[in-house]
Amino acid sequence: MADVLSQGEIDALLSALSTGEMDADELKKEETQKKIKVYDFKRALRFSKDQIRSLTRIHENYARLLTTQLSAQLRTYVQVAVASVDQLPYDEFIRSVPKMTILNVFEPFPLDGRFVIEVNPNIAYAMLDRMLGGQGEALNKVESLTEIETKILSQLFQRSLETLREAWESVVDLDPVMDEIEVNPQFLQLVSPNETVVVISLSTTIGEASGMMNICLPHVVIESILPKLSIHLWMQQKKKDRQPGELSALEKNLKQAPLDVIVELGQSQISIAEFLQLGENDVIELNQTIDDPLLVKLGNEPKYYSQPGKVKGKLAVQITDSIVKEGESDDE
């Protein structure tokens, strides 16, 4: 954005032009000169702004879903939010993460290649402590992960991948599978050092612990689905049409749902003392006569009036009228 001049600066500029201290023709020449923009070939920008915005929206949704999932699983305060989305060389990403950290490597089938989610040890150990019944303390002992701790963390992060699949389903049907957990980034050669990757940084709070989770998406892995990340294409995407027969199948299943039908003969009020003294052959007087219609309830909701009778020797009722509430039609 161009700098906005204050009124004093505007007055000084007009004064310089009027006194000849500044030449208007020279100003025009400067404006017409080609502006040179520095481009670093080592930091090739291979993702468009539209694609970056789409990736941001996807992972904002992922952050919301992950917040809900971890809150229910860890039973503590959890807050996950997108802090930044940047594209940079893979080598720069590796050098930016701590020497000892939690690197979750997974394969995003059907895409070829691997993604990685780097989790700050403070966050990872707070999760692990909660899973083991602790208060969620952020212990940092990455270099001495036991086999049991590695297994628990693997299962925990595998569940978070199911949330990632849900966040990506509007673009591609991912089936991410955990490959391995690595603690030293120098041993992780995901792609070539100069390959462009997108790094989505998630600001994460687990109880009293806080840190960052970084999702690394190599360009070469998601290159095949980049056209689907166009905002124009995404906004035009329509909801899936119902499959033929789906509505009729839904109606058929709905008709088979059980529903309680209650025929009310009448009501009466008695005291607790009278209730305790009830015995065989005692008569309870109801609040309506034998000529009054009986109330039929569907799911405890009054719906019809009826008259009692018998069908093939069994007690039955015949519907005589329907109850129409205010604001409803007879067809409802």
Automatic annotation (TrEMBL):
Transmembrane regions listed in the UniProt entry: none
Superkingdom: Bacteria
A UniProt-annotated Pfam family: FliM
GO CC list: bacterial-type flagellum basal body; plasma membrane
GO molecular function: cytoskeletal motor activity
UniProt KW keywords: Bacterial flagellum, Cell membrane, Cell projection, Chemotaxis, Cilium, Flagellar rotation, Flagellum, Membrane
Domain Flagellar motor switch protein FliN-like C-terminal: 253-322
Keyword Membrane applies: yes
Compartments, as annotated in UniProt: Bacterial flagellum basal body; Cell membrane
A single BP term in Gene Ontology: positive chemotaxis
InterPro entries: CheC-like_sf (IPR028976), Flag_FliM (IPR001689), FliN-like_C (IPR001543), SpoA-like_sf (IPR036429)
PANTHER family, per database record: FLAGELLAR MOTOR SWITCH PROTEIN FLIM (PTHR30034), YOP PROTEINS TRANSLOCATION PROTEIN Q (PTHR30034:SF6)
Family affiliation: Belongs to the FliM family.
Stated name of the protein: Flagellar motor switch protein FliM
Organism, as annotated: Evansella cellulosilytica (strain ATCC 21833 / DSM 2522 / FERM P-1141 / JCM 9156 / N-4)
